[in-house]
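[Meeting: bench + compute handoff]

Bench side (C.D.) handed over the final construct sequence. Compute side (W.E.) agreed to return the predicted structure before the next meeting so the bench team could plan truncations. Sequence as handed over:
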Amino acid sequence: MSVLTLICNGTNRQISFAQPQKLQAVLSRAGVLFDHPCGGRGACGKCAVKLEGAVSEPNAAERKAGTRLSCQAELLGDATVWLSDEVQWAQIEVGSTD
């Protein structure tokens, strides 16, 4: 099991997950929802995040967007993601998401 640390508004939450998984899937099971007008194809950039740790290399869609996208990035192990201040912690449940 790996751990994803979520940071938003100076607050941390940790969730466990079995890797590899798309970041969007782990966040969704934790209750963090992003708008995906492009259907998760990496074209709109609405799910942009700052991401560090054991993660996949940026793919073509992310390089074009100039940022990591939750719908494209794959978690390979322990990682940290910084969410925008608009994310409400009430949406985030702490616990295992495997």
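W.E. noted at the follow-up: Residues 23-29 form the longest helix (7 residues). C.D. will use this when planning the next construct.
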